[in-house]
């Protein structure tokens, strides 16, 4: 007989959330750890496929790089920014392909994947859905001071992760998240 604590009763570390801000030229990613109301920066970065590479190869780079981020940082859940509507149909379609990579890589790794609109993300981080990128970056620096200097793409991805942390906490308060 062992003195091991059953897995269901064992203390659990902070929940790790991967946030993704998909783009074909630059896909931002950020991982935060959530422990109750406490947020902590884990890692962030930007995936930049070669813009001269064939389209399929660029998508493969995105998928593989997101998969590597998941393997390296072991998130428990993922969140992806929804597509911003564009007047150029060809650009919107290409962005949709990049979003597919951002949705599929975490799903393939067995993570639940949530999607959030731009205004929900901005409201969660800045307090208003009409915030600009500068305001988002400013608040990321305040909320996650150990993140250091971030690019706009990485700051947006961290904001996606924070928005998911806030939404899942609110849902839990109302009994909608296990």
What descriptive keywords fit this protein?
5 helices, alpha/beta, 178 residues, 20% strand
3D structure, described in words:
- This protein has 178 residues and is of the alpha/beta class.
- It is 45% helix and 20% strand.
- It has 5 helices and 5 strands, in the order βββαβαβααα.
- It has a 5-stranded mixed beta sheet with strand order 3-2-1-4-5.
- Helix 1 (55-73) runs parallel beside helix 2 (89-108) and helix 4 (133-143) crosses helix 5 (152-173).
- The longest helix has 22 residues, at 152-173.
- It is globular and about 45 Å long.
- The protein starts with 14 loop residues before the first strand and ends in a 5-residue tail after the last helix.
- The model is unreliable at 1-11 (pLDDT under 50).
User: Topology as H/E string?
Assistant: EEEHEHEHHH
Overall average pLDDT: 88
- Largest β sheet strand count, sense and barrel closure: 5 strands, mixed
SS-derived structural category: alpha/beta
């Amino acid at each position: 007989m062992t003195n091991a604590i059953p897995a269901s009763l064992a203390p659990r570390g902070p929940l790790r959330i991967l946030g993704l801000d998909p783009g074909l030229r630059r896909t931002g990613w950020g991982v935060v750890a959530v422990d109750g109301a406490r947020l902590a920066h884990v890692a962030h970065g930007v995936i930049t496929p070669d813009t001269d590479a064939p389209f399929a190869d660029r998508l493969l780079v995105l998928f593989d790089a997101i998969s590597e981020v998941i393997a390296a940082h072991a998130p428990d859940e993922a969140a992806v920014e929804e597509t911003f509507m564009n007047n150029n149909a060809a650009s919107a379609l290409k962005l949709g392909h990049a979003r597919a990579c951002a949705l599929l890589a975490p799903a393939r790794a067995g993570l639940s994947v949530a999607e959030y609109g731009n205004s929900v993300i901005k409201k969660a981080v800045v307090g208003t859905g009409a915030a600009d990128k500068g305001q988002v970056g400013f608040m990321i620096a305040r909320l996650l001071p150990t993140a250091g200097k971030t690019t706009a793409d990485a700051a947006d991805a961290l904001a996606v992760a924070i928005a998911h942390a806030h939404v899942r906490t609110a849902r839990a308060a109302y009994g909608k998240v296990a």
